[in-house]
């Protein structure tokens, strides 16, 4: 509910403040008094484009603030998702600076125009004359039928199944694409794998072969060096091991005469033992080092094969070749498994499709069952509002053979015939502004309770009607206002007479400038204003009496 609207420095409005009723609010005033200016200012906080040309005083900012009382789940969710303060009262403010730049705020937090539009659509339903968008949109048409058909629970179930179906369908498409890719690459991958499989490389084989080949290539020189070392240590004319033992023995008999000699003798003996071990180890190594041409040839063949594979795959180690082999094996195995996985997902898609179609057909049945009663009620209301020859038809098409979409199987289109010609066409193409306005009022009056519509604002939807038709429009608005706030700008006294709060827009001189102002009328002032709407500036007694009857005083 819009409880308060504050406007400053907008067009010819210096400063006004309006406190709206939570029921039916009517705004009247002479042509040119500024009613459309008030709506223009309101449109700013609903997210319309801002223009610096609207500034009354070019050196001051323009402010428009709307105070709303609302606490629906969708609004609470929006505030949380956008990190906005949750208050009992939502304040939307729009500012236009002197340079033309505008800023938007929700509860004093800066927001984008897109965020402003999103929130305002939950708070206000604004219908202006010649505004064909909402009624012509398929979403609104579907929502209207669904609201009356009571499909909410079925639609929630369907939405869950449809989401699963879309996910499964995407997974199936990805698998089939993957299979195509596998098929294109399978032969090449199999060739590469077989090549590595035939090579039969073992862990670190190339690195170890390279080291062994270097050893074998130098085996004769290594044996000669080892033989010489062993000879000098153990087999020479004066072997180092034997000579060192003799030196130790020569000092042994004098150890009792000098305290340092026992330690020297022990170190000489330890060195003799170490050299003896070195001689044994050298001999052992020498026995194992042999020149083996056949082994060298085998190692050269393995290295040639290994280096060829490394170069081919731009790799550097045996481990990388073995890892590549594992990857190729995984891809080949995946190619074998993908058909099985495709079959499983196809079965899932079939099951979900059947479930979705079943729910969609139940939804469709409810919609189609509601179509004729909906048409009859709307057409009866159209007669009441002065369109006796107009007809609306809810065209609902779709079957289980058609493609499922987000809301089931049906395509819903409102068709309109203004003159009983039986030539129905989409309402967005054939309805005039005045016809569309009254048609929208009739439809919204039927679905308002079911759709939980927000504050409803009608800007001069009474164009082209008068008398009984205008009275019926007022009756419909009054009924709408029993469960939600309605704000309407009107020129019709029959509609103004139904108001719970009547606001009068007028111009007044302020120095040398003309300014627009607005005030709420008392009961007596309402009678006078409506009498003037009936009989002119100097209303007759009959007009006054008629006005009192309309106001109910």
Total strand count, please?
A: 15
Low-pLDDT parts are 129-133
The secondary-structure class comes to alpha/beta
What's the CATH class of the domain at 1-132 and 451-521, please?
Alpha Beta
First-residue to last-residue Cα separation: 27 Å
Classify the helix fraction into a percent range: 55-70%
CATH topology of the domain at 1-132 and 451-521: Rossmann fold
Neighbour order of strands in the largest sheet: 2-1-4-5-6-7
Provide the CATH superfamily of the domain at 1-132 and 451-521.
P-loop containing nucleotide triphosphate hydrolases
Give the number of helices.
Answer: 18
For the record, the CATH architecture of the domain at 1-132 and 451-521 stands as 3-Layer(aba) Sandwich
Arithmetic mean pLDDT: 85
Major beta sheet summary: 6 strands, antiparallel
Instruction: Give the CA-based shape.
Output: elongated
Task: Report what the structure shows.
With 553 residues, the chain is α/β, with parallel strands linked by helices. Among the domains are: 1-132 and 451-521, Rossmann fold (3-Layer(aba) Sandwich); 180-336, no CATH class. It is built from 18 helices and 15 strands. The strands form three sheets. Strands 2-1-4-5-6-7 form a six-stranded antiparallel β-sheet, with helices on one face. Strands 8-12-13-3-14-15 form a six-stranded mixed β-sheet. A three-stranded antiparallel β-sheet has the order 9-10-11. The protein is elongated. 31% of the residues are buried. The model is unreliable at 129-133 (pLDDT under 50).
């Amino acid at each position: 509910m819009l409880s308060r609207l504050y406007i400053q420095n907008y067009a010819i409005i210096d400063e006004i403040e309006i406190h709206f009723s939570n029921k039916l609010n009517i705004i009247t005033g002479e042509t040119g008094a500024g009613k459309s200016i008030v709506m223009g200012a309101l449109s700013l906080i609903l997210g319309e484009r801002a223009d610096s040309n609207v500034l009354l005083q070019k050196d001051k900012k323009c402010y428009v603030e709307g105070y709303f009382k609302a606490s629906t789940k969708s609004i609470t969710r929006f505030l949380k998702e956008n990190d906005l303060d949750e208050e009992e009262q939502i304040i939307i403010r729009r500012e236009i600076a002197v340079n033309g730049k505008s800023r938007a705020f929700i509860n004093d937090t800066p927001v984008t125009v897109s965020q402003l539009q999103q929130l305002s659509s939950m708070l206000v339903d604004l219908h202006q004359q010649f505004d064909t968008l909402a009624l012509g949109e398929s979403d609104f048409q579907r929502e209207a039928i669904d609201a009356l058909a009571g499909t909410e629970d079925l639609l929630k179930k369907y939405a869950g199944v449809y989401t699963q179906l879309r996910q499964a369908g995407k997974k199936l498409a990805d698998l089939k694409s993957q299979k195509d890719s596998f098929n294109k690459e399978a032969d090449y991958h199999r060739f590469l794998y077989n090549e590595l499989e035939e090579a039969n490389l073992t862990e670190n084989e190339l690195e170890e072969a390279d080291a062994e080949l270097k050893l074998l290539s130098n085996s004769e020189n290594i044996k000669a060096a080892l033989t010489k070392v062993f000879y000098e240590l153990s087999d020479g004319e004066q072997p180092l091991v034997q000579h060192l033992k003799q030196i130790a023995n020569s000092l042994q008999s004098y150890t009792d005469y000098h305290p340092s000699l026992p330690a020297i003798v022990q170190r000489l003996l330890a060195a003799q033992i170490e050299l003896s071990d070195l001689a044994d180890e050298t001999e052992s190594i020498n026995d194992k080092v042999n020149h083996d041409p056949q082994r060298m040839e085998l190692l050269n063949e393995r290295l040639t094969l290994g280096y060829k594979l490394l170069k081919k795959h731009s790799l550097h180690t045996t481990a990388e070749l073995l890892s590549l082999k594992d990857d190729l094996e995984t891809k080949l195995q995946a190619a074998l498994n993908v058909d099985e996985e495709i079959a499983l997902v196809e079965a899932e898609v079939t099951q979900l499709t059947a479930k979705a179609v079943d729910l969609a057909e139940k939804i469709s049945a409810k919609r189609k069952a509601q179509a004729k009663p909906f048409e009859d009620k709307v057409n009866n209301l159209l007669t009441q509002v002065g369109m006796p020859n107009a007809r609306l038809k809810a065209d609902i098409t779709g079957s289980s053979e058609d493609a499922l979409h987000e809301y089931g199987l049906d395509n819903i289109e409102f068709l309109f015939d203004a003159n009983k010609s039986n030539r129905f066409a989409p309402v967005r193409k054939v309805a005039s502004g005045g016809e569309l306005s009254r048609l929208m009022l009739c439809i919204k009056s039927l679905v308002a309770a079911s759709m939980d519509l927000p504050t409803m604002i009608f800007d001069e939807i009474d164009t082209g009607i008068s008398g009984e038709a205008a009275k019926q429009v007022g009756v419909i608005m009054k009924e709408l206002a029993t469960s939600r706030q309605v704000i309407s700008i009107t020129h019709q006294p029959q509609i103004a007479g139904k108001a719970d709060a009547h606001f009068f827009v007028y111009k007044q001189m302020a120095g040398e400038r003309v300014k627009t102002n607005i005030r709420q009328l008392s009961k007596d002032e309402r009678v006078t204003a409506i009498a003037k709407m009936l009989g002119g500036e100097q209303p007759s007694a009959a007009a006054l009496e008629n006005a009192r009857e309309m106001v109910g005083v």
